[in-house]
Design goal:
By secondary structure, this protein is mostly beta strands. 12% of the residues lie in helices and 54% in strands. The two termini are 13 Å apart.
């Protein structure tokens, strides 16, 4: 039950920027969403802000994710690979369906621009069980 509660709180935080009425350590700002020419796919762009020490656990998306770090320092972990540390101006590609996590390892807010090319009508975020 505790894991369900934590997962619900994290999903709520990622979608709304708040958990149970309080500011979340994770803030997601949706910037744009458009259908693309590839049948059944769309592109979504969002800004993700993490407070210092905050992490987003292992999860996947129903398509590719292209990450551009806007500010701060992130540690990304793609399942089965060594962690990679990225700072402002650096990029990361996450293959479709690949479990990965992110953590702000700096002392200030870390922000990324996430661009998803994903299957329509699927949940954007699926946490690893």
């Amino acid at each position: 039950m505790k894991n369900l509660f934590l997962t619900f709180g994290l999903v709520t935080a990622l979608l709304t920027g708040k958990v149970f009425g309080q500011e979340s350590p994770v803030k997601r700002t949706d910037l744009q969403r458009h259908n693309i020419e590839a049948a059944g796919y769309e592109t979504i762009q969002a800004r993700i802000d993490l407070k210092p020490g905050t992490s987003v656990g292992m999860h996947s998306h129903p398509g590719e994710e292209v990450i551009y770090v806007l500010e701060g320092i992130f540690e990304y972990q793609l399942e089965g690979e060594k962690p990679v540390i990225l700072k402002a101006g650096e990029v990361l590609f996450v293959p479709a369906g690949r479990n990965h996590s992110a953590k702000n390892i700096g002392k200030v807010r870390a922000s990324e621009l996430a661009t998803y090319i994903v299957k329509k009508d699927k949940p954007l975020l699926v946490f690893k069980k």
